[in-house]
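call fold(seq) -> tokens
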Amino acid sequence: MTKTRLLSASPLIVLLLLALLPPAPARAACTDVAEPGVEWRRCYHDGRNLEGADLSGAVLRDTSFQRANLKGTNLSGINGFRTRFVSADLRGADLSNADLSEADFTKADLSGAVLKNADLRRARFFRATLRGADLTGADLEMADLLHADLSGATWVNGQRVCADESIGQCN
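ret:
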């Protein structure tokens, strides 16, 4: 085979090889239905009402839920790295075993929320309400709790309950 014939056949060979590859898994769109395991990466759900939804095991990386209603929502086991919950209503939500490192909960209401064994490293809780929340086993390394209300919250050791008026730290 001459050099010219080999070069002209190369694109055809590449196309045939690509056709033999298995199809890539489809990525979920930001408009997909809220359900367990949904993949919403870099989506905007600001102001959305997802009260009581089951989003367990979902991928919510870099997604925004500013001012969203997530009251009673199941967010257990989610990948919520750098997710924004600014001013969101998360009262009674289940965030256990979730990766919420670098998430932003500024002014969010997490009253009664379950954050057991959640990865909250470098998360921001500036002026957030965590009254009665369960932080048992949570990793709060370098988390910003400035002006956060921790009154009645169960602390990371699972035994200490923060006193009333515990602002910015568990007293």
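Residues 29 and 40 are 7 Å apart (CA to CA).
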